[in-house]
Amino acid sequence: MSGPRTPPAVAARHPNLRRALGPMAPALLLLTVFFAGPIGWTFYAAFTDSALTGPGAADTMFVGFDNFTQLFSDPRFWDSVLLTVVFVFFSAIVGQNLLGLFLALVMRGRARAARGAVGAIVVAAWVIPEIVAGYVWFAFLSDDGTLNSLLRGLGLEGTSWLVMTPMLAVILANVWRGTAFSMLVYSAALSEVPTDLLEAASVDGAGPLRRLWHIVLPLIKRTMVSNLMLVTLQTLSLFTLIFVMTAGGPGTKSQTLPLYMYEQAFKLFQIGYGTAVALVLLSIGAVAGLVYVRVLKVEV
Amino acid sequence: MKKLAACLAVAAIAATACGEGSGNGSDDRTVKVVHLDFGGGDPTADWLQRAKKQYEKENPGKTVKLQPITGGVEDYYGQVARMQQSPSTAPDVVLEDSSTIEADAQAGHLLPLDDRLKQWKDWDRFEDAAKTATRAQDGKTYGVLMASDVRALWYNKKLLKDAGVTIPWKPESWGEVLDAARAVKDKGAADVVPLNIYASKAAGEGTSMQGFEMLLYGTGDTLYDEQAKKWVPKSKGFDDALAFYDTVFSEQLGPSPQQALSGELPNTVNEKMLPEGGLAIALDGSWLPRAWEGDGWPEWQDTMGIAPMPTQDGQEPGATSMSGGFSLAIGKKSGNPDGGWDFLTTALDKANTAWVNTRGNLTTVREDVAASAGYAERNASVAPLTELLKVTHFRPALPDYPKVSAEIQAAVESVATGQSEPDEAAETYRKNVTAIVGADQVK
């Protein structure tokens, strides 16, 4: 704790820093080369007409804000933004986050066997690779898939779920896959809530909802913010699951920003334009993070 | 500090290793050839193997390194474009789609071949259309075409006959194509798809070329006005072609929505639906028989018929087709262009060209191969398909074409899935294409 003194030089304030820098140098170097490097390059490329083929590939030129002007006047970009917001809101904020909290609450204080069974099932969805999860859902929802077979068994008519309800399909798949993460985070937080507080409240006549609202939630508020932030950022950049299930289609009905970015950069080879989309995606993530910190008014 | 130095050294070595690991160490003893492995009985890989053996025998001590890339055509373009970025990965010889030559020439990925072609006696054997196909707007030639292809209607004689359609079938307008499909839907088995026309972004260029452009170029309108040197972002033909798609999919004459949107559909049509009698009419490429012959379905000649795709109302010349073709080109950053050229001329000499054209059921672009014994007689499809070269069209070979093509695919898919009406999709296309090529580049 430095206190309210005049701030001396960083190295002087932390005499160990210089000595620590030596062993840290390789790690710092690697981080600079492989992490800061690409990010810096993205910033640069977003303001050029860099392309994999065509005139932009021969002499890449600095084009100022052209990519962004073009981006913001492209209705498909705004459609993608809207789809991304819908996807993040329903699959991450509502789906994963609330369902995870609910599962964690329900599992608290249950018998160990029940907890283990539910936990294993939920976590299994989380540990399988994303591409496998995508394929599992594709196989479940496709025309000749499990769901339609089940419906036919019940005498009902199925439909082409991935074509008729693409957003619902990818949202469900992402909730299914990501809930385990939120559940684990909340389970850990709930175990820190002192039981004597809850018992005291219930002696005072507080029902379960009241105890949740007035005791549990305020105590795990910080965890909630961290969790919301993590699932939002994870979901914002989600690519594989959607790509495998619908590839952004039909048409552009499930084309969120990462898929739009992929199409521009790697199918149409417009690297400059694609990186501009990446920067926008990055800023949306940053804004979302700020909003969480502000709205919930807690320090993280 | 010793430790630090060691770590840095390790990092440096790792970085160099990364740089060279994917490189080829191109020298004048090795020729690196990058090509697409199409799969599905395509003979390209075997053809290059043959050429490799011959080249290595004729040039002792030199080797050819073949680097096949598997996947879709669009993935291949992207991979090659990335390899072309640096001398350590750039190919010496590359299998290059003639439609990407303009873009890659402008990008500085390809070496002009004019001086070498002047000295190559075989070059006179190539048809003029083939020479034009690999010439960029700067007047230089960047590749040598290995073959061309055409597109037409493949139909199952039995399924059409059962539906009451006269065989041999020769539709004279779009209306007659649709009537035959309706007849199959009404009178045929329930699990038979009457007509396939590619309609998805996933099928990529297949949707643009085998599908939409086969319609558009039969209306009298085009994508690009060669005289005025301007794109045509809006035309009646464009609207009518989208309306054709609307009819096919709203009357359920085509494959199911999920099938239509699958990137696997081209293979499914070729290897499953047509051989198993699950599809009556397919608007598709001339290469289909190579999979059938490879998969042991020699009877396809009795089952399948070929009809030229008619123009919209039967207007002159009565039929239409689209053509493209792959060529061999030399990378500009190649470390061994002379070896590359020697390999190119070996692979594209008369004997090897004849071999790959025959095996792939491709339309040859060499006069001497066309006249050679065994070329025309090999199967029943050669004569009618070769006939189509008289009415065929080429895509505008411009750097913006891939982006325009992506807009076509988006427009077609949105109509086929019912996401938008044809006139809405046409308006979106007009707006987007105008934005892509620039307002001064459209009519």
Q: What sequence of helices (H) and strands (E) makes up the elements of chain A?
A: HHHHHHHHHHHHHHHH
Q: Percent of residues of chain B in beta strands?
A: 5-15%
Largest interface: A-B, 36 and 41 residues
> Please, what is the oligomeric state?
heterodimer
Organism (chain B): Streptomyces triticagri
Protein name (chain B): Extracellular solute-binding protein
InterPro entries (chain B): Bact_solute-bd_prot1 (IPR050490), SBP (IPR006059)
Keywords (chain B): Signal
Descriptive notes:
Chain B: This is Extracellular solute-binding protein. The complex is a heterodimer of chains A (300) and B (443). By secondary structure, chain A is an all-alpha fold. Chain A has a single domain (75-295), classed as MetI-like (MetI-like fold, Orthogonal Bundle), CATH 1.10.3720.10. In chain A, 74% of the residues lie in helices and 0% in strands. Chain A contains 16 helices and no strands. The longest helix of chain A is centred in the first third of the chain and has 33 residues, at 75-107. The two termini of chain A are 18 Å apart. Chain B is built from 20 helices and 14 strands. Chain B has helices spanning 2-21, 44-58, 73-83, 101-106, 114-119, 128-133, 157-162, 174-187, 205-216, 236-250, 257-261, 265-273, 288-294, 300-303, 337-347, 350-359, 367-370, 382-387, 401-416, 422-437, and strands at residues 30-37, 63-70, 93-97, 143-145, 151-156, 193-196, 224-225, 230-231, 279-285, 304-307, 309-310, 319-323, 326-330, 392-394. In chain B, strand 7 and strand 8 form a beta hairpin. At the A-B interface, helix 2, helix 3, helix 9 and helix 15 of A face helix 1, helix 3, helix 4, helix 11 and helix 19 of B.
